[in-house]
Amino acid sequence: MNARCTVVRVRLPGVDSVDDLGDRLAAHVATCLRCQAEAARYRTLRRRLGALAPDQMTAPGTLVPSVVACIEIEESDVPGNRRVGLRRAAVAVSAAAGAAVAATAGTIIVVGLRRSHNAA
Amino acid sequence: MTQPEVERFEEDELVSLAGQGDQAAFTELVKNHQHEVYTLAVRMVADRELAHDVAQESFVRAWRAIGRFRGDAKFSTWMHRITVNTAFTHRDRRKRTAADPLDVVYQEPESELLSPERGGESAAMRGPLGDALSALPESLRSVVVLKDVYEWTHVEIAEHLGITVTAAKVRLHRARKSLRLTLWSHQNEEGA
Questions:
Q1: How many CB pairs under 8 A join A and B?
Q2: B38–A74: do the CB atoms touch at under 8 Å?
Q3: Mean pLDDT throughout B71-79?
Q4: Chain A interface with B: residues with Cβ < 8 Å
Q5: Minimal Cα–Cα distance from A90 to chain B, Å?
Q6: Where are the alpha helices (DSSP H) in chain B?
Q7: How many CA atoms lie within 13 A of A54 on its CB side?
Q8: Where are the alpha helices (DSSP H) in chain A?
Q9: In 3D, which of B131, B126, B146, B15 has the Cα closest to residue B70?
Q10: CATH 1.10.10.10 occupies which residues in chain B?
Q11: What is the pLDDT of residue A109?
Q12: What CATH architecture applies to the domain B1-107?
């Protein structure tokens, strides 16, 4: 094994083709049986990995129902949250209105008491 | 129209309806893509239970975002990207909770998690190659799976994994070298 073999070994895992090694190294591989064997291993590895793509596992039967359930919960939550928001807003408006009415009534009573006190 | 064109047309219709809030149409999309999304999730996280969670969350994320899906890419490509992102979210969560020493003590080897006896499923992750893949560290496995199985570019991988293109290339190099050494262990690098 010479220096070029070593360089080929180092670089082979990172390339998709022997041609990507550059002209000099590719020419070396063309004449070196050991490097050809090593290149063939990586070619086989890439081919076998690529062959995995269409090979699919069967998803558990619970996957689709669980996704549907999550979406239904999420969708039912959204208007629910809006309702809660509206309810809170209604309570806040009622409280503000009540406070305003109480303040007005308090003012009227105080003014009335002062007038009756002054009249006396 | 050819069969793939018909399927594409039907899928476009389903995507369009789902984008308008049609849950039934989206459920059809989930049924049509559940196996490929689950398979990608298993290949990314090497754990069937976690892959179920990743696939489930990926579809829920897709439902939330499908109104913004413009159809530039195929729905399956879009789902793949969501699945990869979700897998990495789960990985990060797992890293944060892995500080518990009990998790470390009782953690099973990944190759066992993917052993055929436990799954009884297809050859997608079985055999020497499946074992070698599942034995890789997650950072290397994800890159080699996305590049050599799903034919993503280095740029796409770098974007989705939040790493540089150089880092993606380095990880691919290490992953392939590790797989080569595992699969042809009787034939060392000297070519003996």
A1: 118
A2: no
A3: 88
A4: 1, 5, 9, 13-14, 34-35, 37-38, 41-42, 45-46, 48-50, 52-53, 55-60, 62-64, 66-68, 70-72, 74-75
A5: 29
A6: 3-19, 23-45, 48-65, 75-97, 101-105, 110-113, 116-119, 127-135, 138-144, 154-161, 165-183
A7: 2
A8: 3-11, 23-31, 33-51, 63-119
A9: B15
A10: 116-192
A11: 67
A12: Orthogonal Bundle (1.10)
The larger pLDDT score, comparing residue B16 to residue B120, is at B16
Asked if the model's pLDDT at residue B19 lies above 80, the reply is yes
Architecture (CATH level 2) of domain B116-192: Orthogonal Bundle (1.10)
For B147-159, b where at least 16 C-beta lie within 10 A, e where not — what string? bbbbebebebbbe
A75-115 pLDDT per residue, tens: 887 654 443 443 344 444 445 555 665 666 666 666 666 77
Cα dihedral B154/B160/B161/B167 (nearest 10): 20
Alpha-carbon gap, residue B145 to A52, rounded angstroms: 9
Residue whose pair of structure tokens reads 């399927």 in the numeric block? B7
- Provide, as residue numbers in chain B, all residues whose Cβ is less than 8 Å from the Cβ of A74: 60, 63-64
Using a CB-CB cut-off of 8 Å, the residues of chain A touching B43 are 52
Q: Is the pLDDT of residue B143 over 80?
A: yes
**Residue B171, token pair as written in the block:** 């990880």
Q: How buried is residue A54: exposed, middle or buried, by Cβ count under 10 Å (0-12/13-18/19+)?
A: exposed
In the predicted model, what is the mean pLDDT of residues B105-119?
38
